[in-house]
Prior knowledge:
The complex is a heterodimer of chains A (477) and B (305).
Chain A lengths: L2 H6 L15 H8 L4 H17 L5 H15 L17 H4 L2 E4 L21 E5 L2 E2 L14 E4 L6 H8 L9 H9 L4 E5 L9 E6 L10 E5 L2 E6 L4 E9 L9 E10 L4 E9 L5 E10 L4 E8 L4 E10 L5 E10 L4 E10 L5 E10 L5 E10 L7 E10 L5 E10 L5 E9 L3 H9 L4 H17 L5 H20 L2
Parallel strand pairs in A: 1-7, 2-6, 5-8, 6-9, 7-10, 8-10, 9-11, 10-12, 11-13, 12-14, 13-15, 14-16, 15-17, 16-18, 17-19, 18-20, 19-21
Antiparallel strand pairs in A: 2-3, 4-5
Chain B lengths: L26 H13 L16 E12 L5 E11 L3 E6 L5 H9 L4 E10 L2 E2 L5 H6 L2 E4 L6 E5 H15 L7 H8 L16 E2 L5 H15 L3 E5 L7 H14 L5 E6 L12 E6 L2 E6 L2 H9 L8
Parallel strand pairs in B: 3-10, 3-11, 6-9, 9-10
Antiparallel strand pairs in B: 1-2, 1-4, 4-5, 7-8, 11-12
Amino acid sequence: MSIxxxxxxxxxxxxxxxxxxxxxxxxxxxxxxxxxxxxRLAETLEDSISAASPLPLPYLQKLRDTSSQTLLSTPWPSRxxxxxxxxDTSFIKNADIQPVPFSSxxxxxxxxxSEDTLLPNLTVVDGYVVDSLSQLSEFPDGVFVxxxxxxxxxxxxxxxxxxxxxxxxxxxxxxxxxxxPDVIVVYVPExxxxxxxxxxxxxxxxxxxxxxxxxxxxxxRILVLVEKGGEISIVEEYSGGDENDKSxxxxxxxxxxxxxxxxxxxSYIQTQSLNAAHVKWTSxxxxxxxxxxxxxxxxxGKLSRHNVHVQxxxxxTSTELSTFxxxxxxxxxxxxxxxxxxxxxxxxxxxxxxxxxHSLGQAVFDGNVQVNRDAQQTDAGQLTRxxxxxxxxxxxxxxxxxxxxxxxxxxxxxAISDLEQNQLxxxxxxxxxxxxxxxxxxxxxxxxxIERFPEKSVQKKAEGLITKLLIPKLxxx
Amino acid sequence: xxxxxxxxxxxxxxxxxNGPQRCRYVQSVRNFTLRAxxxxxxxxxxxxxxxxxxxxxxxxKDLSAVITESKQxxxxxxxxxxxxxxxxxxxxxxxxxxxxxxxxxxxxxxxEITGGSIIYKGQDLLEMAPEERALAGLFMSFQSPxxxxxxxxxxxxxxxxxxxxRKLGLPELGPIEFYGYVAPKLELVNMKIDFLNRNVNExxxxxxxxxxxxxxxxxxxxxxxxxxxxxxxxxxxxxRDVAKAVNGLQTPKNSVLMIxxxxxxxxxxxxxxxxxxxxxxxxxxxxxxxAEILEREGYKSISGT
Lengths: 477, 305
Ligand SMILES: Nc1ncnc2c1ncn2[C@@H]1O[C@H](COP(=O)(O)OP(=O)(O)O)[C@@H](O)[C@H]1O
Ligand SMILES: [Mg+2]
């Protein structure tokens, strides 16, 4: 669709923010480049937000302003845009997107998911925190976990406000900025090592039937700020109730700011409905000597996209990304990761694995590692392996290392394969039949990532999940 | 349960000792044999022969095989006959086809049989899937066992052991019961208990890999063990450990086919027969004296031509 045809759809552009009067002229110019579809969606989101909280905090106001500003010139991505070359978002685009109202999420007395977590947790239903379902045990002094609008500490508010994002994500990032009703803040003060892992549980309850055009959207937004020398382990879970066939769209953003010598361990499990859209941003800033470890298992969503962006802002950082995606049905699992190293002596290890076990299943991986001029003595490794278990299953992978610095150690590898013949034979030679051997090898493929979850309980949960999903597939073969 | 608590203390014929060979076919030993066979759960425990002539175990006739992918011919008419309780050694230069022969016996898909036959315990081995061969008591210790990341040694052994129990119509062992069964076996190969929690062969040293193969043999038992270069890459201590372990598993009824291209193994073993393989054929068969000629004059002296 050309811009001129787009413009013909634009009889009148309503500017998405109330505060925009001062910049009307420049916006008119931008407006001519706007995508009417995007603007309509932005308006819908904005209307729902202003109904919910008439007087936003300065942080939120700024976030909404910058986001809606960006949306004015952001078209809906098409397959012609490189980041979406293999990721078809028309399922979202063609839907009638409706923000979930606050009121429909607070009356739940229990969750439609198993209550299996013993970890301190904050429970978020369709983007809204539900206190009665959350269980936050006491954290060390100075730690804050909760909504920005409930934050009383001026000093923390001041620190948080320094990080209203100036990061340029994509359309979905900005839609979240406009649609997020509040921000969940996790603040860890200087030198504080939080022992217990914190679980952030996101549950999608409102969903439409599979064939309905309506698509309820939630826009959770989280900011994790860990000051110098602090440490925390965060378990971020997205699920969608027990009947796993509802349609909804979770459009989530997590920002992580890791101070000098601080450490964040981030576990992420996504098991949403196979008719849902799950779009997720994880944007990380790492100061010198800091460490960030991500371990991910994603199995849910009809369309699931995780964008991971890690930016180094000081030397001697350590970054470990271990991710496992499973496409068990007619679904797409997409990981777009970008690691930008601008300072000396960074260390990074990335492993991405995926299994596609359905003839209509797809997996996409775009893994970019940039080692820029000043990032001397960087040690960066990237490995991706894909396992296709059905004839027409597809995977599109694009590992790419961009190295400008000259004194660096970088390695990468990519393999798409069936199971190793020699390994299968080893099982058979010990009397194990080929089906059982295949099962064992497939689980071991996933185990390499699962065993990196720092919490045993999370490991167990992920193992159980994979078993439950894969066993029926493997037995039916 | 008691039945499956194998006792490896009974060693009527210490395979690896340099001492005098005795008692292979003595009647009283036979009785013990049966018990010992059951105790390591070799699936063939139904044979209750009472002495007499040893039974034919393996008969390979004019066996030829090619590499599946390239159709390159590797085995060019191998003949070999083994009776129960015998120990055969196959020697030969690197590349002569020894490992290929071993792998063909256990049904490796890299090779395609183009001629000849293999009869094992009266059955056509070539008609059997690899796992059926294993369950029929064939065990091969690989020259270079493959690493299996993500599968722990104990889970692997447990799976294999349960496959065998199913075949025997016995209930499977859960992880805890199995642990109780397998833990004492580690002593046999002189390994620490944490060996069980490591992933199969992953990051193992050469010696550890060989010990692990023998541990599997100890856990699963076998009527015919094919040991492909269990001696290569081992220092003297490791070699002694491995030899001792194989020794401990030996009964007068189960048979061993040893593959090596070093003479060094023969310091520990006095085999029934030695075969020399050359260019995909067994070119000479004889007793230990062949080894002595080899020692003095090298392979050239016994070349089939
Ligand atoms: N899977 C295979 N692919 C290619 N070549 C092979 C394969 N297996 C064996 N060969 C070749 O066949 C010959 C015999 O190998 P092998 O049986 O391993 O010999 P040995 O064990 O006596 O050293 C060698 O030349 C070897 O390179
Ligand atoms: Mg060999």
